Amino acid sequence: MARDDVKKIRKLRNKLHETIKKTGINSEETKKISDEIDIIINEYYDSVETTEYPKNSEMIEYYDKSYSALKDITKELKKFPTVKEWNQYAKENNYLCHISLEYISKLDWNYLQIKVEREINFKKIEKN
């Protein structure tokens, strides 16, 4: 990652922490800063000659945990969550928002729904 990008992310991260303290985690200002960080990170990965995140990336760990939680909440709700429902749940439980899940998986929300529902149904079939 370019040194300038790292500096921008550090500066924004510090600004994000201060904004969370002042206005709370759910404020528009907090969301705006978080989105700015996401844009820088995603622009970097778009510019790199790769089609996926490195296997040792923390982002993959966050994705895996978030995806697992998405499957769990789908089972709990007995339906796939809406974007609004997921983003609220993700925010409260420190998971990736729907945009990040879409970006990392390279699937839009509807295809993620199909994937999750197929995996859940497959597990039900295996148990019977």
Which secondary structure elements does this structure contain, and how are they paired or packed?
Blueprint: H1 3-23, H2 28-47, H3 58-77, H4 83-93, H5 98-105, H6 109-127
Helix pairs in contact: 1-2, 3-5, 3-6
How much β-strand is present in the residues? under 5%
What is the terminal-to-terminal distance? 48 Å
Uncertain segments are none
Q: What is the succession of H and E elements? A: HHHHHH
Helical coverage, percent range: over 70%
Q: How large is the radius of gyration?
A: 16 Å
Biggest β-sheet, characterized? Answer: none
Characterise this structure.
By secondary structure, the chain is mainly α. It is built from six helices and no strands. The chain has helices at residues 3-23, 28-47, 58-77, 83-93, 98-105, 109-127. Helix 1 runs antiparallel to helix 2 (28-47). The protein is globular and about 50 Å long. The model has no long low-confidence stretch (mean pLDDT 85).
Structure, briefly:
The chain is mainly α and 128 residues long. It contains 6 helices and no strands.
Main traits of this protein?
single chain, 128 residues, mainly alpha, 6 helices, 0% strand, globular
